Amino acid sequence: MDFYSTQISNLVEHLSHLPGIGAKSAQRLAFHILNMPSEQVEGLSAAMVNAKKNVRYCKECCTYTDDELCPICASQKRNHKQIMVVENPRDLAAYEKTGKFEGVYHVLHGAISPMAGIGPQDIRLDELMVRLQGDVEEVIVATNKNLEGDTTATYISKLVKPLGIKVSRIASGVPAGGDLEYIDEVTLYRALEGRVEL
Ligand code: ZN
Hints:
By secondary structure, this protein is an alpha/beta fold. It folds into two domains: about 5-55, Orthogonal Bundle (Helicase, Ruva Protein, domain 3); about 65-195, 3-Layer(aba) Sandwich (Dna Topoisomerase Vi A Subunit, Chain: A, domain 2), CATH 3.40.1360.10. It is built from eight helices and seven strands. It has helices at about 5-15, 25-35, 40-55, 70-75, 90-100, 125-130, 145-160, 185-195; strands spanning about 55, 65, 80-85, 105, 140, 165-170, 195. The strands form two sheets. Strands 4-3-5-6-7 form a five-stranded mixed beta sheet. Helix 1 (about 5-15) packs across helix 2 (about 25-35) and helix 5 (about 90-100) packs across helix 8. The chain is elongated. About 25% of the residues are buried. The chain binds zinc ion. Zinc ion binds near residues 63, 70 and 73.
């Protein structure tokens, strides 16, 4: 079946490991890359290598950044007493696009899932608890509306409530089972506005 040269097969193989890229898409991308001008291909590969090398976790909110603090945590214009907890940086981006949230974020990089063997210690909860020792008024849990997201929300509320900090959960405007990043901005904004205290 190896009718391509080794190098092409190698490229197709690497691309097919990317999420959402099947064998056919990998082939299409590989040939697209081969047809690109050399400098564009070099730019693409340098962007990947540099991002991988230089991007790290924000020391406050754990999102990806290339500085010690991400631009949101570094901003004086944001309300640092209000922390929205999201599962991943894509959810953070989705909420930022609404332009309506003035607080800061905390990125868990996952959700608790006993089925998948992901426990509280596997997501960035310790880092959240450290932040809550500071001056925080509200934690808004904006994990996804599915079993894992709900389990995580319940767990967080149990941790945070005894600290005397308000804990709320985004409203049910977000469809059950819905991934936040695919939901439109108006729906996200309504979900935030209609959040309920846990
Ligand atoms: Zn940050």
